[in-house]
Amino acid sequence: MSVLPDAPARPVNAFDPEFLADLEEMDTLETTLEAELAGPWTIRPLEGEFGLYRLWEGPELGSIPEARFGEMSDALRFLAATLPAGRESTIRVGESREEGGFPVWSCGTRIGRLRWASEPLVQSLHVMDNLSRSPYFLTALIVAAGPQVIREVGKMLRQGLPAWRSGSLGIFGQP
User: Fold this and answer.
1) Distance between CA atoms of 102 and 116, rounded to whole angstroms?
2) CB neighbours (10 Å) of residue 17?
3) Less CB within 10 Å around the terminal CB: N or C of the chain?
């Protein structure tokens, strides 16, 4: 395992330290987290590991990776998780049960009902919502799953697309 320096050998920001200090005082947790995780990200080989860097960073610049992993598949999963981790959830569950369950809202539109109000399920829906809107991050997750999963996804897509075009649920509607 290599040891990276805690600080870059040369400045990596065009702004002077006083200006950056003033910005730090203005930071809010909500905007900082989203900006911090926004990327865009790249995975770089790093002496037997894989480092996750912003596109404009790298070990040759003295940058510290956001994360390090021994396996590429773990780095890809983490890359995919950065998108929803930095965003406020668009999925909300009503606080009180109505007829048929707890209402589920997405971006202010009621999209369904849950039998039980489950915070872990709502968090999972947030992740899936974000991944389903990003071909880049969804691809990272599929590649991380490995060749066999990719082959099976290909089969399901090939089988399902004609059904979905005709309005059927295809493989998702079968017992």
Assistant:
1) 7
2) 9
3) C
Residue 54, beta-bridge partner list: 41
User: For the whole prediction, is pTM greater than 0.90?
Assistant: no
Which residue carries 């003033």 as its tokens? 22
As to burial, measured by CB atoms within 10 angstroms (0-12 exposed, 13-18 middle, 19+ buried), residue 135 is exposed
| Model pLDDT, residue 69 | 96
Going by their DSSP bridges, the two strands 49-54 and 102-106 should be labelled as: unpaired
Closest by CA position to 2, among listed 56, 59, 58: 59
Taking each continuous run of H as one helix and of E as one strand, the counts in the chain are: 6, 6
Domain boundaries, the chain: 1-86, 89-133, 146-175
DSSP state of 10: S
| 72-85 vs 119-132: helix crossing angle, rounded to 10 | 100
SS (H, E, C) 99-154: CCEEEEEECCEEEEEECCCCHHHHHHHHHHHHHHCCHHHHHHHHHHHCHHHHHHHH
Is 11 exposed, middle or buried (CB count within 10 Å of its CB: 0-12, 13-18, 19+)? exposed
- Among 23-32, 63-72, 89-98, 122-131, whose mean pLDDT is lowest? 23-32
